[in-house]
Specification:
This protein is of the alpha+beta class. The chain has one domain. 43% of the residues lie in helices and 20% in strands. The chain is elongated and about 75 Å long. It starts with 5 loop residues before the first helix and ends with a helix. Residues 187-195 have low confidence and may be disordered.
Length: 269
C-alpha cells in the first residue's frame, strides 16, 4: 500500500541502481592498469620505499554516476521533509528540506522574535509537527556524532553532493589490500618478518608519487619479494569521505538512510 514516503523510497532505489551501475565502469577502468608502484632503496636506511604511480584518471562516467547517486540520496531525504510538511497543512512552506547540520547552534538558531531563523534546521522543518522535528534533530550529525559530526554519514551525503553539483567528486587511486609472493632467493635466518612484507604497502588512498610504505628485509635474508596490490577508486583524503573507497562509502551512506533514518521516521506515516 502506498504511503507518503514512497517518493523518497523511489529516490533511494534509484541511488541503489547507480551503485550497481558503478561496478562495471570501475572494474573496467581498473583492468586497464591505471595504478602501479615503483620501488627505490633509501640510501640512508637501506629500506625498500614503495611509491605510487597514477597513469590515468577515472573516465567521466565514474564521477558522473557517483554524483547522480549522491543526488538521489539527497533528494530522497528532502522528499521526506516535504511529505510530512505537506501532510500537516497541504502545502510545504517555502524552504522546506531535510536539514543536515554539524553545528547545533545553527540548527536551533532563532530570529529576534524567537522563531526559527531563516536557514536554520528548525526553519527547514517548521511545517512538520514537533514529534517528527525531534526525531530529525536526533538524527543530525551533531546529535549522533558530537565528537566528529563531519564524519557522520548524513554530513558526507550533504557535503559530497554539494561538491559533485558544483565541481565533481574528488577521486583518486587506492590500495584495497596487498598480497605477496617470493620471486627467488633463500632465507638463511629465521627472522624474516612475513607479516611485515605483506604490510609493506599500506591500504588507502594515494596521490601520484605518494609513498605507499617501506620494507626493511631482515639480516640474512636473500630474496626478491613480489608485492601484489589490489587497487580501487577512492575519494580523495581531502574530500568529506576522507580517502575511503568510493563504492564502500556510497554503500555505507545509502545503508545508513535505509536502515537508520527511514525506520525512525516511518513510524509517523
Amino acid at each position: 500500500m502506498a504511503d507518503i514516503l514512497d517518493d523518497s523510497r523511489f529516490q533511494f532505489d534509484a541511488a541503489e541502481e547507480k551503485l550497481q551501475a558503478l561496478n562495471g565502469p570501475i572494474d573496467s577502468f581498473l583492468k586497464g592498469d591505471p595504478y602501479s608502484f615503483v620501488v627505490n632503496i633509501d640510501p640512508a636506511t637501506g629500506e625498500h620505499v614503495f611509491k605510487a604511480r597514477i597513469r590515468k584518471s577515472p573516465p567521466p562516467i565514474i564521477p558522473k554516476t557517483i554524483a547522480d547517486a549522491l543526488q538521489d540520496m539527497r533528494t530522497g531525504l528532502d522528499y521526506i521533509a516535504f511529505a510530512f510538511a505537506e501532510r500537516e497543512s497541504g502545502t510545504a512552506p517555502t524552504g522546506t528540506e531535510f536539514p543536515i547540520f554539524f553545528d547545533p547552534g545553527q540548527f536551533r538558531a532563532t530570529d529576534k522574535s524567537g522563531k526559527p531563523g531563516r536557514g536554520s534546521g528548525f526553519y527547514k522543518i517548521r511545517g512538520i509537527n514537533g514529534a517528527i522535528q525531534a526525531v530529525i534533530e536526533g538524527l543530525q550529525p551533531f546529535s549522533e556524532r558530537p565528537n566528529d559530526p563531519k564524519g557522520h554519514p548524513l554530513w558526507m551525503i550533504h557535503d559530497l553532493n554539494i561538491i559533485a553539483k558544483h565541481r565533481k567528486p574528488l577521486l583518486t587511486g587506492a590500495v584495497a589490500n596487498v598480497g605477496f609472493g617470493i620471486v627467488s632467493g633463500y632465507i638463511s635466518s629465521a627472522t624474516m618478518n612475513w607479516g611485515g612484507a605483506a604490510a609493506a604497502i599500506k591500504p588507502g588512498a594515494f596521490h601520484d608519487n605518494a609513498e605507499l610504505g617501506r620494507m626493511q628485509l631482515a639480516p640474512g635474508t636473500h630474496m626478491q619479494v613480489k608485492l601484489i596490490p589490489t587497487y580501487d577508486v577512492a575519494f580523495d583524503k581531502a574530500s568529506p569521505a576522507r580517502g575511503e573507497m568510493a563504492r564502500d562509502t556510497l554503500r555505507l551512506l545509502l545503508d545508513h538512510i535505509r536502515s537508520h533514518v527511514l525506520p525512525k521516521l516511518e513510524v509517523f506515516v
